[in-house]
């Protein structure tokens, strides 16, 4: 079908693995998803990924010789130099030689990064980052992820925890976090965190709009909160204002260490757009050093779910360009 080289981008998530065949330009030729099989400590995940890639390559008449390499984003703590996953709790992995396994199955070069980091790389390459040298990205999803590009390079730190923005402590006496600590940014600013704050109101004020919504739907979501806020509900507005304040404060602290030109806000919650972005910017302005604030643009991420596979492809592109 084609003579051009193809790059494979893989984004491993807790429920699905997103896979894409991309051109060198980052344009997506084909993308699809397979379920993440977390049974038996995620033992079959690497096989599943390679089976899916090789079947699709065959279906598209792409020969292995035309595949430049495989870039992978995996959740958890990762040694990106070796492609080793120390631990990825939500898919059951502990001490998995991911790059080594996938490379020996495929015969292709494999490069691995943390999933939040590949999303930042993708956004910075083809999305809202516009190839900036210094970027902070925050992903407000089920949890809160983050990634930092400093001087054009993604930061990993000494053992893979750099840019774990979701676990910045914002309230030492706050809610318990999945990481075992208390009051992490994630406990408030994730979709789960928004709902947690709504549930507090629902429990204490049964005549609130939020409680009404909860009774009607049997559940309440972050989307409900933004919707109700738009309709004038003060409780929902209060949740958004408070959370944006916390996020803006965290951003202002982060920017003091990096002095970035961009802060990118992505993830499902960021679909709220300006309704979330504006109060975040206000809080950021309030707390930041003016000079730091002036140089920094806060933007909503643009690539959505494709950021991961695009960033994973950029890993391959960047690494093989050096070879
Ligand atoms: Zn935490």
Provide a descriptive summary of the structure in words.
42% of the residues lie in helices and 22% in strands. It has twelve helices and 13 strands. A hairpin with a 4-residue loop joins strand 5 and strand 6. Helix 4 crosses helix 12, helix 6 packs across helix 7 and helix 6 runs antiparallel to helix 9. The longest helix has 25 residues. The radius of gyration is 20 Å and the shape is globular. Zinc ion binds next to loops. The site of zinc ion has 6 residues, from loops.
Short description:
The protein is of the alpha/beta class and 323 residues long.
- Measured as a percent range, the helix fraction is 40-55%
| Main sheet makeup | 5 strands, mixed
Give the termini separation: 27 Å
CATH architecture annotation of the largest domain: 2-Layer Sandwich
Summed up, the domain count is 2
N-to-C SSE string, H for helix and E for strand: EEEHHEEEEHEHEEEHHHHHEHHEH
Attribute tags:
single chain; 323 residues; alpha/beta; Nucleotidyltransferase, domain 5; 2 domains; 5-stranded mixed beta sheet; 12 helices; 42% helix; globular; binds zinc ion
List the helices and strands and how they pair.
Layout: E1 6-12, E2 16-22, E3 28-35, H1 39-42, H2 45-59, E4 67-74, E5 77-79, E6 84-88, E7 93-96, H3 98-106, E8 110-114, H4 115-126, E9 135-140, E10 144-150, E11 153-154, H5 186-189, H6 191-204, H7 209-217, H8 222-230, H9 234-258, E12 262-266, H10 274-287, H11 290-294, E13 297-300, H12 307-322
Parallel strand pairs: 1-4, 4-8, 9-12, 12-13
Antiparallel strand pairs: 1-2, 2-3, 5-6, 6-7, 9-10, 10-11
Bound molecules: zinc ion.
